[in-house]
Task: structure prediction
Amino acid sequence: MNDQSPDWDFYTKHGLSPVINVNGTMTGLGASRAIPEAVAATAEIMPHFVDMHELQSQASKVIQDLTGAEAGFVSASAAAGLSMTIAGCMTGLDVARAEQLPSISGVKYLVPVQMGHLCHYGAAIQQAITLTGATCVIVGQSTQVLDHQLAAALNENVAAAVYVVSHHVVEFGQIPLRRFCEICHAADVPVIVDAASEYDLRRFLEDGADLVLYSGHKFLSGPTSGIVAGRTDLVKAAYIQNLGIGRGMKVGKESIFGVMAALNAWKMRDHDAIRSREAEALSMWLRAVQNFDGVTATIHPDVTHNPLDRLKVAVDPKIAGASAAAIGWALSQHTPPIIVRDHEVELGYIQLDPCSMAPGQAPVVAKALDEAFKRAAAGRLSEPDLNELRNQGIRTYVEWS
Ligand SMILES: *Cc1c(COP(=O)(O)O)cnc(C)c1O
Result:
């Protein structure tokens, strides 16, 4: 462990296990390290009563300022925002209808989504849609969707169409957002964009989205929260779901105030300084692995154009002595565990993302990489059963005490 890191005392004091996150923003690891502005804001508001509508109306102003949207509000999470906006597109501003959900009598209830967009961010996107009572209509096939297929799905029972921007969706063969919006708008269907993990707060609305959702606890490094931004009528329709299915997704004053602070800080954030710190970590890791036989390390920009790079470490198991999966698994067994991006590990690589790392952790990761590849070269790394590992990830939800 590294003395420079301010984190370790915290873990010892509270009996929690430290972990080094070189994966990105992960719900299972606590999403992100909140920035001081957000921490201070959440603490400041906690002892006070406030008029929650007044607070949300202030949040709306901040959201308007950063996104260019007509209006916005803060939800419990982006996933909650997705359910609430779908529900809003079903009920409009009719409170009685909001109270009747998930019964769909008398409301539009169909929600088309491109098949390649049906991803899993810890839960399935379909479920965030269908728990409103809506039915998800799958458009096209996983690797190809054509305009006429979307157009054919848009009938009078369609409440809204959902478009997902994420590294979890299929990266090719999908209808681009602008075109998706044109087709939907021609049929008078609003478009909801799930951009939970995207840094660009303006582009999706500019491309025609009627509503867009962001996470407050991912790149913004705020408290657990979601941001709903878009057309005033639809934002309000989503907001009235607080009287219905949104009640179990209640957002607290601390999350609203905290994410407002995170949004304001986002404007001031020194992105260049952050990127150059991240670049240092990437080149340190590149140097740590590049001389091992069978390893090809390259720096890659983010696939959805977020301003961040990752180190892709491709491993030829026949030469390196172990697969990328074995390296990822070995790092997860390090003390403290090092969690890498391994969701595409069957393709022969892991990725290292410096954006969520705490200070002082980059050298720990470099040393662990060196050790793992040395063990691989010496034939001392065993191959994990990938399918078993993934299934085990689910069992941890049941087997805890
Ligand atoms: C993370 C993520 C979500 C969920 O965001 P939360 O704010 O944690 O609910 C939804 N969609 C996508 C594409 C995501 O990446």
Summary: The pocket of pyridoxal-5'-phosphate is lined by residues 27, 77-79, 121, 164, 166, 194, 196-197, 215, 226 (CB under 6 Å). The chain has 16 helices and twelve strands. The two ends are 27 Å apart (CA to CA).
